[in-house]
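Query form — protein PTS EIIA type-4 domain-containing protein

QUESTION: What is the three-dimensional structure of this chain?
INPUT:
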Amino acid sequence: MVRIIIATHGELAKSLIETAELIIGTNHQMSYFCMTKSKSGEVGKKELTELIYSDTLTDLVIFTDVYGGSVNNICSEILLSLPENETFHLVSGVNLPMILTTIMTSYNEDSLEAILTESIKEGRNGIKYINELVKGVV
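ANSWER: The structure tokens for PTS EIIA type-4 domain-containing protein are given below.
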């Protein structure tokens, strides 16, 4: 099973996990990190490092909210500082379809790279401009 950390600005990570659990239950390994105004970058990095090392790094995925944002940058720094034999997968632009797909497909025998490719695809497919879809229908 894949271990997932969702790391975002504000309380978004916590809310994403609560929402995912509403849909698929709690039989998973997900945790969250919330970067708030009260945390410095150093405190955030320390908390994230502890969260990452709270369990084995094997099959660890960290989803962040904004590519190039402070949370993503902290995770990138940690990723780049790891020894070669330790790593995790870092994906930005988290949304609910990505999380659900990752959890539901992690039970397959597919490689984690294949699971993440599918999750990113489903995350993109979940973005629709509904007005365009219903144009001409109404």
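ADDITIONAL NOTE: Helices lie at 12-24, 41-52, 70-81, 96-105, 112-125, 130-134.
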